[in-house]
Design goal:
Blueprint: H1 3-17, H2 21-28, H3 33-43, H4 56-71, E1 75-76, E2 83-85, E3 88-92, E4 97-100, E5 103-104, E6 109-112, E7 120-128, E8 134-135, E9 138-139, E10 150-154, H5 176-181, E11 186-191, E12 205-207, E13 218-222, H6 223-229, H7 237-247, E14 253-262, E15 266-269, E16 273-279, E17 284-292, E18 299-300, E19 306-307, H8 310-332, E20 339-345, H9 354-361, E21 370-371
Parallel strand pairs: 7-10, 10-11, 11-13, 17-20, 17-21
Antiparallel strand pairs: 1-16, 2-16, 3-12, 3-15, 4-5, 4-14, 6-13, 7-14, 8-9, 16-20, 18-19
Helix pairs in contact: 1-2, 1-8, 3-8
Length: about 375
C-alpha cells in the first residue's frame, strides 16, 4: 500500500478514537497493510468485472464487503441490515419500430425516453421547424402551432449564409425548452447524413430523483428516414438546408404523413444498494461520524475491456474496512470511539453520486447529531 494511505489511516484512527496519544498509537499500529492489499486485490479481480452498478460484478462485490463486515464483527448499520436499497430501476431493451409505408426503418433512428410510459405514436400531423431556433434574431416557430404534433428539427448550429456567418445569435439549438413548453407529441431530430443507428437502445440505469429530466419522447433519425417522411411535400433535408442558408430565413411548415412509431419501454427495479455498518460509541453514542468510500466503478466497455477502479475507489474501500476493523477491536476492549461511527460504502457514485445522495435523503440516524468525517 502507498505510504500516504497508511498515514491517512493512522490520522483517522487518532482523530476518531479521541483517546490518549499512547492508546491511539497502540491501535494505529494494528493497521495491517497486508489486509488492505488483500481487500484491494479482491475488489479489482476479474470476478467483480469493474463493479458497475446493478451488474453482477457489483452484486458480488457487495456480498464480499458484507462478508468482511461480518468477519470483523461490525454490526448492521441500517437497522437490522447491512444493505440500504436505493430506489432505482433498469430499462429493459424493448422491441421498437418506426414503420412508414409498411417498412420498418429499424436501423435509421435512435430513441430516448425517460417518461416512464409507453410511447406508441401514430402520427399524421407533422411540423418541420428548421433547426428548432426560437430567438429574437431567428424564429423557426413564428406563426406555427406545434401542440399535439410531431416536430422535426435538423441537428446542427443553425443556418449559415454564403459568407460563412451564422444567420442568428441563438445559443440553444434546437431550443428544447421552448419546444417542450408547447407540448408536442414527440420530437424527431434529424442527424444529417445516412449513418445507421445499430444500437438504438441501451441497458441504462435510472434513479427516481431524475425521473423528470426528460419529459418529451425524442427520436434521432438519419437523413434517409427524414427524406421519406418529407416525401408528401417533395422536399429533402439537403434542399431545405440549402434554401434556408441561401436566403438566411426560416422555412418551417406543416404537412401530413402517416407513420407508426413504437418506443415502448419496460422497466424493472434495479438491485442497487449502499452497504452500511456501525460501531457504537460510548458516552456520545447518539452523535455520529461517517467514514465512507464508494465501492462501484464503471464496469466493462462494449469492447470487453474491464475498468477495474483500483484508485476509484477500491483502495478507499480497503482503507475504510481496515480502519473499521481496528476501531471495532478498540471498542470491544473498552477503548473505542466516544461517538458512534457509521461505516458507509455507497453504490451508484459513478452514475452521479446517487448512493450517497440517497443516504442523506433517507437518514436512519438523527441528522442534527451526525458529524462529518
Amino acid at each position: 500500500m502507498k505510504a500516504g494511505i497508511v498515514i491517512l489511516s493512522f490520522l483517522s484512527v487518532c482523530i476518531v478514537l479521541e483517546a490518549q496519544d499512547k492508546i491511539a498509537l497502540q491501535y494505529a499500529e494494528r493497521l495491517d497493510s497486508m489486509r488492505m492489499k488483500a481487500t484491494l486485490t479482491r475488489l479489482v479481480s476479474d470476478e467483480f468485472a469493474g463493479r458497475k452498478s446493478n451488474e453482477e460484478g457489483s452484486l458480488l462485490a457487495a456480498d464480499y464487503i458484507i462478508g468482511q463486515l461480518k468477519q470483523n464483527n461490525i454490526k448492521e448499520g441500517n437497522r437490522d441490515s447491512y444493505k440500504q436499497n436505493i430506489e432505482a430501476f433498469h430499462r429493459e431493451k424493448p422491441v421498437k419500430y418506426f414503420r412508414l409505408d409498411d417498412f420498418n426503418y429499424d436501423d435509421c433512428y435512435s430513441y430516448s425516453n425517460n417518461t416512464f410510459q409507453d410511447s406508441v405514436i401514430s402520427a399524421s400531423d407533422i411540423v418541420f421547424a428548421g433547426y428548432g431556433l426560437y430567438h429574437s434574431t431567428f424564429n423557426d416557430f413564428a406563426g406555427i402551432d406545434i401542440k399535439d404534433k410531431i416536430v422535426m428539427v435538423v441537428e446542427g448550429d443553425g443556418p449559415i449564409n454564403k459568407y460563412g456567418v451564422r444567420c442568428h445569435s441563438a445559443s440553444d439549438v434546437p431550443n428544447m425548452k421552448y419546444i417542450e413548453s408547447q407540448k408536442p407529441v414527440a420530437v424527431l431530430i434529424v442527424k444529417p447524413g445516412f449513418r445507421t443507428f445499430s444500437t438504438y437502445s441501451s441497458k441504462s440505469l435510472h434513479f427516481y430523483s431524475n425521473r423528470d429530466n426528460e419529459s418529451l419522447p425524442r427520436a434521432r433519425i438519419n437523413e434517409l428516414l427524414a427524406n421519406r417522411i418529407l416525401e408528401p411535400v417533395d422536399k429533402t433535408i439537403k434542399q431545405l438546408q440549402y434554401e434556408s442558408e441561401s436566403g438566411c430565413k426560416s422555412l418551417s411548415f406543416e404537412f401530413n404523413n402517416e407513420f407508426v412509431f413504437n418506443g415502448d419501454n419496460s422497466y424493472r427495479l434495479a438491485d442497487v444498494s449502499n452497504i452500511i455498518g456501525v460501531i457504537e460509541g460510548s458516552d456520545l453514542k447518539d452523535e455520529y461520524v461517517v467514514l465512507s468510500a464508494h465501492y462501484d466503478h464503471i464496469g466493462i466497455t462494449h469492447r470487453g475491456k474491464i475498468y477495474y477502479g483500483a484508485d476509484d475507489n477500491a483502495s478507499g474501500v480497503s482503507v475504510v474496512m481496515e480502519i473499521a476493523r481496528v476501531m471495532n477491536e478498540a471498542e470491544k476492549a473498552g477503548k473505542g470511539p466516544r461517538r458512534s461511527v457509521v461505516i458507509l460504502f455507497p453504490n451508484a457514485e459513478e452514475d452521479g453520486l446517487y448512493g450517497s445522495g440517497y443516504m442523506l435523503k433517507n437518514l436512519f440516524i438523527p441528522s442534527k447529531k451526525q458529524l462529518p468525517a
